[in-house]
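Obj.: predict assembly geometry.
Materials: sequence records (below).
Method: joint structure prediction, all chains together.
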Amino acid sequence: MIAKNPKAALIKSLLTHIFLITFCLSVNFPLIWMAATSLKAGSEVNRFPPKIIPAEPTLENYSYVWNDMKMSSYFLNSVYVSVLTVATALSLGTTAGYAFARFRIKGKQGLLVSILFFRMLPPILFIIPLFFLLQKIGLYNRLESVALSVTTISLPFAVWMMKNYFQTIPGEIEEAATIDGCNRFQAFFRVMLPLARPGMAATAVFCFLSAWNDFLFANVLIHSEARRTLVVALYSYVGEFLIEWNKLMSASILTMIPVIIFFFLINKNLFKGVSAGSIKG
Amino acid sequence: MKERNVGAIFLSPTILALCLVILLPILFSVSMAFFQFDLLRVGRGNPFVGIGHFVTSINNKLFWNALGNTFLWTAANVILQLLTGLLFALILNRKIRFKVVYYVLILIPWATPSAVAALIWRWMLHAELGIINAVLIRLHILTDPNPWLSIPGWAMVWVVIARVWKEYAFCTVIMTAALQGIPASLYEAAMVDGAGSVTRFFRITLPWLKPSILIATVLVAIGSFNGFNMIWMMTKGGPVRTTEIISTFIYQTGFERYQMGRASAQSLVMVLILAFMIITYIKRMKSEEEPFR
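Observations (raw structure tokens):
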């Protein structure tokens, strides 16, 4: 829009920036506060009123939670569960998404709608029967069972995301591949999969995060302390009667680091994926 | 090979997986709801109870309390998340420098795992050491620290705020995408016709956003209705069950009192309510759209 005079435009944009900076700072304040607390020594945390900037910043809390509170092994547990979930949901979601996007299938619409419906079901509905079923087949207290349970949430999502993504790729590309002598499988693996990489990346991140952030399934299905995931371990410290908040906050930051890394790595695709996956859905 | 067979080959592993991890548990849950399944009374066997669990659940005042709280929690979440999300999307839709930086900063809370978000808010709301109390005392709004999460009424306010803080960015993303789709020519034409910024907002922006707002409403409502983590980790449904929502209520029935049959029945009732709400909403959406066609 064209402003009437340059001075008014300058003031207007200045106000917008001040407004935005204030908002960004205040919505991120909880995270700033978490970071500040994680750098404080125990004696400083128990002081009231608190100061935002730590008097003597220390990284001691981090090394303590990583080594003495065994966060490192919980970290690995979380990675294992998340990678397993991504592998399952992504490989199934990609093939099914391709089938839904490109083939005439009997009852396709019905199938797609019911998959969407599955996605809307509450996790609490699944955890009760899964608790029994997984016990029956001897998967109780195993990380694989957590990954399998998270798949109930992430698989329907992956199917829809990948279906929408494949629909954005023009069909002529496969036709060209078939003319060049590829059969349908070769066309899929050699031509379509490389093209679908951005969509797969976004789907993978979402599946990874839903596994990484899962609390309900891991909390119910994992019994022994050594097999806890990060999020469950984090929460279990709160249950203890004396909470050391500075240590807890540094553990929280460690839990958040992979999430933030992913977030920045593919934020462009991520946002495209979200809008495609939710609006067309 | 026939076209249809190739499609079936691509699809069948997923159909099998969906049957195993989703359909089977649902069917098992339905059958559990008709049996005792009381883990603390395994010795007495597992008799068939018919619709007994459904009857006791519907006659249980605590179930209705949880349901009422769920509606309150869902409505508050939908309204606040949509308004905040829309506000940020509108501000970011202007021509400004460093837009990407602001966008990412606004989205960061969304990336916070719910467990972490719950812990941060518990720490900020801490009765003796919390920064929120410190700020309110400094501003002379309070004279003594308040144990916010232990006060009925306030506990719900704060869990809603915490959850809105974590989730509003989802609406920002959806609204930003929709706003970018509005053709600039629409605004130009309106300005030529002498429409002011308020008129332009209500006559162009809002109608254009309507489909996205409707969809965001459904998605946010479902997410909040099914919510569990934030409330469980912040208050466990307390104080005196004032923040108890349906998910945490079912969790307690199933995994703290070990009445798995009853918990299954309750979760099925929950799904029925959810399905009813979604279907009614979509039907109304469709009937509202018709006059414009």
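Conclusions so far: Chain B has a mean pLDDT of 89.
To do: check interface contacts against the pulldown list.
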